[in-house]
């Protein structure tokens, strides 16, 4: 009887493996078609300055509007897009859409000088030799100033032993685009690259904010002090309650994003937020 069960289990395992492979191949095909049919849609999560909660921008977070299936979150497709190189074309669409959104907000006089949109740039996209010229062209075509953009990169990118990295980062900075390190502290954090590269912002990963009531607190404090010593600013991600926001404020964190304020919003909802803000009179501080 045990033998039989064993055999069953083996068959189930085999079927699972096959199913996984089929799923992966299907997903890859679907991703190709998603790029061809422009099925990626940006959502925008508001970022607020501390301690006064002024809106200072958004992070563009991609979703895949898959026919028949609805909104697919990036956790389900970014890794495969990265492995297959499809991320390069996807990132181009994310950048294009971000600039379209900024242009849209400019047309309605909602895009004040202090607002910046952060775009996530994966390793493959960062190494794309066309990244800079594509950025330049898109910004120009849409009449968008590079000052409205921040690029979020990961620690992993900075660890590669390539001399092109400093060159690319310097070129990005020269345009007035800001550079942010995403999920700071979760990778191979090295103090060496922080002083070597022209980084503006450290994003404190949600996992540390989550653990602020226990051992995450000293990590968050250390990252903020580090940033202050290096003349960088900090954005905490994934703050879900007001206690976390209070603690982040007390520690001198510069800005925060998270469900405590807002999830990522559709273009329409983000536009509405900007409109409410401008009708409240908070918007006209910089123009
Ligand atoms: P990330 O860049 O660290 O983005 C933050 C993630 O945390 C987002 O998930 C956001 O919705 C989520 N988040 C923010 N505040 C809260 C909160 O209070 N509670 C909880 N539970 N979650 C919160 P999302 O949109 O699912 O994105 C996941 C990851 O996918 C991103 O992590 C980023 O690494 C990647 N990603 C998203 N869009 C893009 C993109 O356009 N290009 C690339 N290369 N990667 C992207
Ligand atoms: Mg990010
Ligand atoms: Mg992040
Ligand atoms: Mg994160």
Automatic annotation (TrEMBL):
Residues of the EAL domain: 24-278
GO molecular function: cyclic-guanylate-specific phosphodiesterase activity
Highest taxon above the source species: Bacteria
Name used for this protein in its record: Bifunctional diguanylate cyclase/phosphodiesterase
Organism expressing this protein natively: Leptolyngbya iicbica LK
Residues shown, of full length: 146 to 432 of 432
């Amino acid at each position: 009887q045990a033998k039989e069960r064993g055999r069953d289990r083996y068959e189930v395992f085999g079927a699972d493996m096959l199913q996984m492979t089929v799923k992966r191949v299907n997903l890859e095909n679907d991703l190709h078609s998603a790029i061809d049919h422009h099925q990626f849609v940006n959502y925008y999560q508001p970022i607020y300055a501390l301690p006064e909660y002024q809106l200072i921008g958004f992070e563009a977070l991609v979703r895949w509007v898959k026919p028949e299936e609805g909104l697919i979150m990036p956790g389900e497709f970014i890794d495969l897009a990265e492995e297959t190189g499809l991320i390069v074309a996807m990132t181009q669409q994310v950048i294009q859409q971000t600039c379209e959104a900024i242009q849209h907000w400019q047309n309605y006089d909602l895009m004040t000088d202090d607002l910046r949109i952060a775009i996530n740039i994966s390793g493959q996209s960062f190494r794309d030799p066309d990244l800079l010229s594509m950025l330049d062209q898109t910004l120009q075509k849409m009449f968008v100033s590079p000052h409205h953009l921040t690029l979020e990169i990961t620690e992993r990118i900075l660890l590669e032993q390539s001399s092109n990295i400093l060159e690319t980062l310097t070129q990005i900075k020269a345009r007035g685009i800001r550079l942010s390190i995403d999920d700071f502290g979760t990778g191979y954090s090295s103090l060496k690259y922080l002083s070597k590269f022209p980084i503006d912002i450290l994003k404190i990963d949600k996992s540390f904010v989550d653990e602020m009531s226990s051992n995450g607190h000293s990590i968050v404090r250390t990252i903020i002090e580090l940033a202050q010593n290096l003349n960088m600013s900090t954005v905490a991600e994934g703050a879900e309650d007001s206690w976390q926001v209070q603690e982040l404020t007390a520690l001198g964190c510069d800005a925060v994003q998270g469900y405590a304020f807002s999830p990522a919003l559709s273009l329409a909802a983000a536009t509405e937020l900007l409109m409410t803000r401008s009708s409240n009179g908070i918007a006209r501080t910089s123009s």
